[in-house]
Amino acid sequence: MRPELSFEFFPPNTEEGEDRLAATRARLAAEQPAYFSVTYGAGGATRDKTLRTVARIQAEGHSVAPHLSCIGASRQSIADLLDHYRSLGIRRLVALRGDLPSGMVDGGDFRYASDLVAFVREHCGNEFGIEVAAYPEIHPQAVSPEADLMALRSKQDAGANRAITQYFFNLDAFLWFRDSAQRAGVSLPIVPGIMPITNFRQLARFSDACGADIPRWIRLRLAAFGDDLESLRRFGSEVVGEQCRRLVEEGVPAMHFYTMNQADPILELIRALD
Question: Domain 4-273 carries which CATH code?
Answer without folding.
Answer: 3.20.20.220
